Structure prediction request, 68 residues.
Amino acid sequence: MPETGANVAANDLPSILSRVVEIKVEYDIRLLAQQLGTNYRSLMYWLRGERQLPAYLLPRMCVLPQEL
Prediction:
């Protein structure tokens, strides 16, 4: 069964988030987790795509690196 655009986008989201964090965040990932109000382990699960990222965190993840 071919993947639909939504499935491709969903499968690519973790890799996109990981790249954004790698590119934009030149500070400690643990600090990013703290600023998001979560723990390091959960953040890493989300970035690797092992668990679904809570939607409410996405806007904050995009804004935090720009605030430095």
